[in-house]
Design brief:
Elements: E1 5-9, H1 14-25, E2 29-36, H2 43-54, E3 59-64, H3 97-112, E4 116-118, H4 134-147, H5 149-152, E5 158-160, H6 168-177, H7 200-212
Parallel strand pairs: 1-2, 1-4, 2-3, 4-5
Helix pairs in contact: 1-6, 6-7
């Protein structure tokens, strides 16, 4: 087992799985971390478990977090909208999600003595979430430096975002080149047996596969 250790935030979707493929290619021993945060379906956690096994993760933890509500992904009374091109933060934004996720990953990383945390945030083709921007990652890295034992001792855990400046098409190409198990990934917000093909996440994913010239191996209710 390599001395390089990384915590990889694994949702079971395309981006986090691509991140895991990058960590594996770079020779890290992988500690996978998924979250049950009250999302409207658990299919992504089932896929995450399969993906962690595929990559022979040293450990895969699923962390229970109480939902704070206020999002179509955590409140069944808020409908998941079909894809819309706009500049507003959508109702699928989960308040402070990546702050919570990274905070737990940071504590876990210190315990397992990881050097890095991989997170699949993207600032190019994304749904307008403020916690997917470079400014957020830079700010959180400062928190690592001043708020952790490893940070104040001069060896802060690095927050790695290999996808942050990639288009969705670039992400699909990278996943394909790395041999990532794309057939095991789930991106749909609705969590039905077949991906809906209409929500933000499905449309961005389908656009990425089209840009990459690669056929998406999962099943959809509709493909436009």
């Amino acid at each position: 087992m390599t001395d390089k250790k990384a915590v990889v935030l694994l949702s079971g979707g395309l981006d986090s799985t691509t991140c895991m493929s990058v960590a594996q290619q770079e020779g890290f021993t992988i500690y996978a971390l998924s979250y049950d945060y009250g999302q409207r379906h658990r299919r992504e956690l089932e896929f995450a478990s399969q993906i962690a096994s595929y990559y022979h993760a040293a450990e895969h933890r699923v962390i229970q977090l109480a939902s704070v509500g206020g999002s179509a992904l955590t409140d069944l009374n808020i409908e998941v909208p079909d894809f819309q091109e706009n500049l507003e933060i959508p109702v699928t934004y989960v308040p402070a999600r990546n702050i919570l996720f990274l905070s737990y990953a940071l504590g876990y990383g210190e315990v397992v003595e990881a050097q890095s945390i991989f997170i699949g945030v993207n600032a190019v083709d994304y749904s307008g979430y403020p916690d997917c921007r470079p400014e957020f990652i830079q700010a959180f890295q400062k928190v690592v430096q001043v708020g952790t034992k490893s940070g104040v001792e001069g060896s802060p855990i690095k927050i790695l975002t290999p996808l942050i400046n990639l288009t969705k098409g670039d992400i699909v190409k990278l996943a394909f080149e790395n041999g990532a198990p794309l057939h095991l990934t789930n991106s749909c917000y609705k969590g039905e047996d077949k991906a809906c093909g209409r929500c933000d996440s499905c449309r961005l994913r389908l656009r990425g596969f089209a840009q990459a010239g690669i056929d998406d191996p999962i099943f959809y209710q509709q493909r436009d």
